[in-house]
């Protein structure tokens, strides 16, 4: 059984759990995950955000788990739960359409699989969103598509709430000759606090408008 605290959190997020028999519909899924070697963080994540995955039939859940493990996703890591949920929630037709979308950017099947094992979110998003994100990274910011394949976590970031506000800052820095390129993995991957320390604070004199610009972009997204 999950801890009382996590169970309460799950019920608050998913009130329908109050109407189902946990011992019949949820606990068996948790047992299967534990037997597969899944870490508690993966189990808790599914319980909180995707409890219906745990309510899948035992055979279907076991098949999804085995498929994810064969792909090379470590059961001990949190992304294991994302991978299982994605495999269960994405139809074959939709999966294939996402594969085709990444191929348009020069990703091989091997690269796509490797990206999925690193960051399963890249196959959880819609084709429309992944194409929009890839277009912005490659055609606006100047990233090599293969760099994104190597750091697929970038695709999980919100274009409006994270990438575009930071890119606005990078554009100003580039125009003033203070950086050499907008295509910076570090600039996008670090926390907001880290971004401010690395890309805002050092340029207060050369570009005093940056902090206000960044804050305005965050507010309007």
TrEMBL record:
<dbReference type="InterPro" id="IPR003690">
    <property type="entry name" value="MTERF"/>
</dbReference>
<protein>
    <submittedName>
        <fullName>Uncharacterized protein</fullName>
    </submittedName>
</protein>
<keyword id="KW-0809">Transit peptide</keyword>
<keyword id="KW-0806">Transcription termination</keyword>
<comment type="similarity">
    <text>Belongs to the mTERF family.</text>
</comment>
<keyword id="KW-0805">Transcription regulation</keyword>
<dbReference type="InterPro" id="IPR038538">
    <property type="entry name" value="MTERF_sf"/>
</dbReference>
<dbReference type="Pfam" id="PF02536">
    <property type="entry name" value="mTERF"/>
</dbReference>
<dbReference type="GO" id="GO:0003676">
    <property type="term" value="F:nucleic acid binding"/>
</dbReference>
<dbReference type="GO" id="GO:0006353">
    <property type="term" value="P:DNA-templated transcription termination"/>
</dbReference>
<keyword id="KW-0804">Transcription</keyword>
């Amino acid at each position: 059984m999950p801890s009382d605290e996590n169970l309460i959190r799950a019920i608050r997020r998913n009130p329908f759990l109050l109407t189902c028999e946990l011992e019949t519909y949820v606990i068996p899924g948790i047992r299967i995950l534990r037997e597969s070697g899944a870490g508690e963080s993966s189990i808790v994540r599914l319980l909180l955000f995707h409890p219906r995955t745990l309510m899948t039939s035992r055979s279907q859940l076991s098949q999804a788990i085995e498929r994810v493990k064969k792909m090379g996703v470590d059961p001990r890591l949190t992304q294991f739960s994302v991978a299982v949920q994605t495999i269960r929630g994405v139809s074959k037709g939709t999966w294939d359409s996402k594969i085709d979308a990444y191929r348009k950017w020069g990703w091989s099947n091997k690269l796509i699989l490797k990206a999925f094992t690193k960051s399963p979110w890249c196959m959880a998003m819609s084709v429309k969103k992944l194409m929009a994100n890839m277009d912005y990274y490659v055609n606006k910011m100047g990233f090599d598509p293969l760099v994104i394949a190597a750091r697929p976590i970038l695709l999980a970031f919100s274009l409006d709430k994270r990438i575009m506000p930071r890119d606005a800052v990078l554009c100003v820095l580039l125009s003033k000759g203070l950086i050499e390129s907008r295509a910076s993995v570090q600039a996008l991957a670090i926390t907001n606090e880290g971004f401010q320390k690395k890309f805002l604070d050092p340029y207060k004199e050369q570009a005093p408008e940056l902090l206000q610009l960044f804050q305005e972009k965050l507010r309007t997204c």
